[in-house]
Amino acid sequence: MTGEAEDVIDISPGADGKADAERVTTKVVLDARSPSRILSIGCNRADGCGFDVRFSGNGAARFDASDASGARIGGSIEPGKVTMTPLWTSQPSPFEVRLNATGLTPDASVELSVSIDTTPQLVRSNQCLSCHAIEKVLVGPSFRDIAARYRTSTGVAERLVGKLKTGSQWSWGAVPMPAQTQVSDTHARTLVSWILSLP
Ligand code: HEC
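^ thats the input. predicted complex w/ heme C below
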């Protein structure tokens, strides 16, 4: 459906030069004159990205998307409340999402804030983010600080994988990290190499 006289808004990570951004956000205004927009959403992670849509305004909006496998990843947005719809796609290359605002009176508009979240799904599904953030210290050190400390050490990946299995204390302070027993060995290696890859 490209080739129409409709703007395609590119919100791929890297489109603004910030390829490593945790989040890439754009705002899209839909009103009665331009009730529909196409977003080209890119994802530079092999294991897929999530995208969140926040809505505000006085109309209703609907959006549809499907990834290359045809799986539907769209949803609808309720009028009158700010809704966050986290969606995941395992499609690593760009795909298009068509946003359609419905029920708009001539003076109404909706503003959608769409962000791509490039944090690997594994980090979310294993609850790491309840204690860690990428940029800032929470209960545990930030993932960037961990990367900065260990990036150049040899053999550190296996040691950190071991820490996930057994827990950790006194590397950063008195607060311990409990053993992350839910994480398989394979996933622990993926998580650690992602952390160490952070700039
Ligand atoms: C309950 C809170 C909590 C959770 C959940 C948690 N961590 Fe931690 N993590 C910590 C704390 C606190 C430290 C610092 C421990 C220390 O000082 O040795 C830490 C340290 C680390 C370290 C550095 C260890 C070292 O020796 O320097 C890594 C790597 C790490 N966490 C990864 C993860 C990953 C990946 C997950 C998800 C599977 C996770 N953590 C889940 C609290 C947590």
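Strands lie at 8-10, 23-31, 36-41, 49-57, 60-65, 75-77, 84-89, 95-102, 109-117.
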